[in-house]
Amino acid sequence: MLECLVARTLRQIESTQEMVRLVGLSATLPNYEDVAAFLRVSPEKGLFHFDNSFRPCPLAQQYIGVTVKKPLQRFQLMNEICYDKVMEAEAVFKDCMKDYFMPPEATKVEPMIPWSPMPGGALTANTQMLRDNGIMDKYPEIIKAMGEVVRRGGFGTSVTPVSQFYFQQAFNNVMFGPWEKMSEGYGKMVLGYFGKTPVEPDAEIVKIAAEQLGLESTTLTPLEINDADPKKGLDVAGKLLEAAGFDKTDENLFIAAACKDKGIQYLEGEAKLGVRKTQKQDVEAESGKAETQGYTVTVNNKTYSVFMDGPEAVVNGKKYQVDVTKGASGDKAVPSSNSQAATEDAQSIKAPMPGAVVRVTCVVGDSVMSGDEIIVLEAMKMEVPIKAPCDGTISSIAVVAGDQVTSGQILAYIN
After folding, report:
1. What's the whole-model pTM score?
2. DSSP letter string over 297-347?
């Protein structure tokens, strides 16, 4: 199929003399030069690749000679060799993965997943985020909601990033109510900002997306939209790199242009890894008896496995910095060095959903208007702006960038 597409495109270029941009995107390849030649990409200009240093386990090929002459015997021997090699590789894989957490949904047959449709590569990435935020119990509802989201969204091919758009919108439909909150990616998709979907999106969904995002439907190509966007391009990426003190190499430009602030965090070594290792319970003998360390904590009928290690708590496999002091603070946050006295009519700002604090856009003492952005959370790869519910002055901020918050947790106060 790829050969057919490339050959026909090249033939069209030759016959019409109109240039067509071919873009090939793949995982790390040992023969990227061959792929570039196949796509007619110049090795000196236009070829970008990640070499083998980005793959901890380099790709390898094995050639096995088969000397058996008789066809059936040769076929049987080749099958046996293939089986043995697959089993050897599986044994190596299991040994390498023995210290890592394997999500149950990644190892079982579940009809709901292909019928959603949810590709396997996106499945565990999303369920791990649900686990991190303590809302894995919502997973069955979210995966069930995927069907309507896909159908009414125009049946875009469910691969990255469209599969993420689908999951984000299904997540919003479950958490906030059907179509009460339109995710940016899904909304832009149905409005045509990423090209035309295979089937026309539902007219009602298009209307909701336009109203909530403040955008109109478009028939422009993604290339035209991106080229006209002043927030995209090499110049913007170059300025991000300069501000962070990085060289403007092809690799750095690619990372900064594709991932923006998160790309800079990656280059600075501050990107968070999504890899989970299994937590081994420490056992020590006390009074002649082995006692397992750790706690099982149940909150609102949800069970959490907690292990304490000095200033760290490991909750369901994820580490958190903790600090416990005597005395309850009640509903009001404990005043700190970055807080002022809250008045009697101080209004709390609470997290509408679990997530991580991406940035705090104000400081204590700032005057804000109703609707001004105070804090930005990230949940399920979506940025959720937290806005001031009223006019006033910020009297307390209880979080910093990087904090993990729960639904309903107090983030700040406004006098």
Report:
1. 0.65
2. EEETTEEEEEEEETTEEEETTEEEE----SS--TTSPPP-TTB-PPPTT-E
